[in-house]
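pls ignore typos typing on phone
zinc ion + seq
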Amino acid sequence: MKVCRNMRQTASKPAVRRTEAVVWVRKKEAAARYGLSFLQIQYACSRQVVRCTQYMVDEEGLRAKLEAVRAAPKRWIYSTTAAKKYGDTRTQIALAHVKGLLRGFSMKTGRGWRGFLIAVEDLEANLERIKALPRYTEAERAARRLYARRWRMRKKLTFFCPRCGAEVKPPRGSKALESAVRGQLTPEEARRLVVIAHYRHVHTAYEDDMYSSKWLREGEELEELEIT
Ligand SMILES: [Zn+2]
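k done
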């Protein structure tokens, strides 16, 4: 039975596969054997200079392209680390990579996410040109403008309560704040709503009374009544 199955498998496979017997070797082992860094091999894999799996590399292929692999940068840095260290933004780094100023490749990290590695020598050689690139995309700029507007409006809507002496800020996601940020309410109107909300929540029993059946008109059920 076993023989039959093996024969069937051999017959169904194209003959060319036999000639493609690849000697796979662990990337770390190959790096040590040929005086390369692990990341040089990873870069060669990403450029498809040599055939690779996640952990292995085709040793014959690597030997054939050894000079090219050895010429690749030895030192690499995560783009997030580079952005912090060199004062660039991740947008600048991504743009520089697209423009060919930075060699880079993405790699699976141990923690299950993908990191983007860039060549330190390219980064240092082109630092001035990278810094001259736009720091943010149009979408990022719009998001930052909105964030700044919300921050300023939050300050405008903050007040000192004469009753409890607390500094009261509009809560996160406050409808009054968002309406003011979008220009649907003036800051004065929004502030009034924030003051009323604070008084209602902190200085009245409104929250408890909300569920009182005394609110009901004839024929109404409690669930139907929506009090905000
Ligand atoms: Zn108060």
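Residues 4 and 193 are 82 Å apart (CA to CA). The first helix runs from residue 2 to 12. more later
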